[in-house]
Amino acid sequence: MKSKRPGSFLKGRCVIRKFYLNEDKESLLGEWKRLGFASSIEEEELDYIGNSCRPAISREYADISGSTLRMHLSLHLQEVIMLRISQV
After folding, report:
1. Are residues 3 and 9 in contact, defined by beta-carbon separation less than 8 angstroms?
2. Number of structural domains in the chain
3. Which of 5, 31, 23, 37 is closest to 77 using CA atoms?
4. Mean pLDDT, 10 residues at a time, the chain of 88 residues
5. Does residue 4 form part of some domain?
6. Short-list 50, 49, 59, 51, CA closest to 19
7. Is there a domain that residue 36 lies in?
8. Which domain range does residue 38 map to?
């Protein structure tokens, strides 16, 4: 967890935002698969893929006491998740 200043940790009510990409959630890999894994992609198709690949977002809240936040995440094959944790 990245703190605001050295030696300080988030405490109290926090929001956890998850930004994730996987084959089912508008990913580059999923769009390329829908195009048949083409080795040659036209500019129009490339523009479409670039504009359609956005991470899905979810939000949850947690109460943090002390300097440790424990989370259990399950990832799909080829999935990437970025967490942004901030105080409410």
Report:
1. yes
2. 1
3. 23
4. 53 90 73 84 86 86 81 86 90
5. no
6. 59
7. yes
8. 12-87
